[in-house]
């Protein structure tokens, strides 16, 4: 680290105590990281898929071996409960394991030519040096979901860690280096105040051939605009506003479990959280009563307390946003059934898990991603009505359908304008499943067999003069 760099304090969201300080990298430091990645790429691109597979496997094993330490880091800097943090470490490791298995199996094609004298072959090659920008809500999983497929493809990376929670990223990258990845193949940038400057360097550098970003739609649009000057390949996983549809024939217990898993995981700070909960009117009151009963059993507090079910929000600005949305909904006629206030006795970043009823589409919570522990219930009467309501969003990341009618499930799923749908489940994340959205939730896929192709380019070879000899 250069002595001129400013240091940013990293607070524990639960206590406010400073747990570490990280350098706020600037333009020169970011360019140096890009140069290191470019130099490493010259040799790393020539490694075989099998060689990269072995390195990724060692990295996976190192993450598993240090799982508890990583979980402690996540809880310290993110605030989520230690049990959720442990689950995230396993989830993060699963992407490294998955792409260790994909790395040797990136096949090209032999394509029949329309010209009998030609033969066509395609090769999948690494796109080059990749710029990655990861969020704070999953400081372990988001970094491995991006870095692992890039390395599997033969790329090198410059990763901008989340300014609010950079420690987990640094630890995971160190484990990668200890696992044998060559110097310069993985470069981590920490920045908070200089985030915009770092982002501009990554988007405008001609050396960076691919940018992958997870974050808000507004920032995604800015990065997309900045990247246009060098015509970069982009993968953008942006804001969500997930509709959660509960039909009258749904299994009520399963739907409640789905809400608890989807809406309240991470205290509501995930991009695929149920944001608009549509419940058919005939079961609305029953569903509301059951959900409130479950929420009453929650216990908010410090994530290291084993009895805690839900931790703090990331900072006071997140709390202020949640509170503002609730007050707006109340002013327009919605009613808070439980929660709805800050838990100041615990600290400034804690907010009570909330259930609010009688929501309408005019309320801010209907059109804005909440990123907090607020279950907002909207009544509906018919299938056509709820599909229309669910589609009234500029974004389309995830959605959820709860019904026991398979015909209805397919009808509704095909009409919902989202990239991913959970059917009778609130948990849809899996390394084998493509993760991505439509509309202003972005484009590109992470995880699955598609994840590695996001970091590759197809090169076509056409061989001429291949006439068959006649004996």
From TrEMBL:
EC numbers: 1.2.1.16
Transcription regulation as UniProt keyword: no
CDD domains linked: ALDH_F5_SSADH_GabD
Active site: 237
Keywords attached to this entry: Oxidoreductase
InterPro entries given in the database record: Ald_DH/histidinol_DH, Ald_DH_C, Ald_DH_CS_GLU, Ald_DH_N, Aldehyde_DH_dom, Aldehyde_DH_Superfamily, Succ_semiAld_DH
Gene Ontology annotations for the cellular component aspect, listed alphabetically: cytoplasm
GO biological process terms, semicolon-separated: gamma-aminobutyric acid catabolic process
Aldehyde dehydrogenase domain location: 11-460
Pfam families the UniProt entry points to: Aldedh
Catalytic reactions of this protein: succinate semialdehyde + NAD(+) + H2O = succinate + NADH + 2 H(+); succinate semialdehyde + NADP(+) + H2O = succinate + NADPH + 2 H(+)
PROSITE patterns in the cross-refs: ALDEHYDE_DEHYDR_GLU (PS00687)
GO MF term set: succinate-semialdehyde dehydrogenase (NAD+) activity
Pathway: Amino-acid degradation; 4-aminobutanoate degradation
Superkingdom of source: Eukaryota
Protein family according to the UniProt entry: Belongs to the aldehyde dehydrogenase family.
Protein name: Succinate-semialdehyde dehydrogenase
Record organism: Penicillium olsonii
